[in-house]
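ok trying again, last paste got cut off:
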Amino acid sequence: MVADMEQNIKKIEGQIEAVLFSVGEAVDRQQLAQALEIDVDTVVKIVHNMMDKYDKADRGVRIVELENSFQMCTKADYYDTLIKVINVPKKHVLTDVLLETLSIVAYKQPVTRQEIEAIRGVSCMHAVNKLVEYNLIQEVGRLEAVGRPILFGTTDDFLRSFGVQSTDDLPVITPDKIEDFKQQAMEEAQLSFAPVKD
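nice, full thing came through this time. structure:
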C-alpha cells in the first residue's frame, strides 16, 4: 500500500517535471492540477517537496514559485557554463531612473505613465519604454478615463529578477523613503533643465 502510494507520487512528480520543463514558462497551479486530475493542494505539496529536493541536490535546475504558478529554471550557479553553450542575452543594467520608475510601478500598479510622472516630477517615457523592453513591466489594461491611458504592471520576469513570489513580498517603503525619491527626482529635474554655458 505504502509502496503503491510512493510510486504514484513519483509518477506525479515525473508528470510535473515534464510539464514544467516542456512549457519553459510559469504554469498556473490550477492548470497543473487539472492536467494531472488531482486537487490544487496536493499539487502544491508535491511541487514544494520537489523544490526542496532540487535545492538540496547538485542539480542544474530548480523550480520557482511565482504568484500562483510554478516554473522550472536554471540555477544561477551554472550561468557561466550555460552562456558558453547558448547565446544568452546580457543582464540589463538598471539605472537609478529605471529603478525608481520600476519601484513606482511595482508599488502602485496598475499605474499610468502620467501617474508615474506626477510622482517623479519628470518625464518617464524613456524609462517606461526601457522597462517594457526588458520585460520587467507590461501593459495590463487601460484606465476608464479620457484618452484611455495605458495601465502598467510588473511581469513574472520582475518577480524572478528580484527573487520574490509575489508583489506582496516586496519590502514596505516608509514615508522617509518616499520623500528621498521626491528629492532625488527634483534634483534630477533641475539638472536636466540647467542652462548650458557657452
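cool. Confidence is low (pLDDT under 50) at residues 192-198. The chain is about 55% helix and 15% strand.
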